[in-house]
Predict the 3D structure of the following.
Amino acid sequence: MANLTKIAVFLVGALFVLSLITTVESTVPHFFVKGQVYCEVCRINFINKLSEPMPGATVRLQCHGEGKGNITYSIEGKTDAHGRYSLKAEGDHEDEECEVTLVKSSRHDCAEIPNEGWALEPSSKITITQNNGFHDDIRQANPLGFTTKKRAEGCARMFKELQIDPNHLI
């Protein structure tokens, strides 16, 4: 009888410890950073009607404290058939700077990471914290795009429609 009591006390204690571990794990916040990657065929570095979704592209979500070298969180993912991605971010990164960047194109003809015009720093900054007024766990990143080496046919017509001069974009 004493052995049964010891076994019962041990089992109750083990269940208590397991429930504490589960409770601690479930209080760690998680977020889903969602965005889109596209191929920008007109080399104006913003998404437009001629931009094409890029399935299979690789992106990276990275958070860092003071200084770019102080990386606190990093995860990579690939886009789906529609050029969209969803990256799961663990933990609250309130005091950190987080951003999504392009890593690798899935297309040989559209593999340049832009570094001019609107895309001097081709990344999308993201706030990953519960202390910012958002009430859900989804964070939407701005679209990111690779560019082609040459402008595609049809770009001149689109420039005319938009009344922009691609040679004078900042």
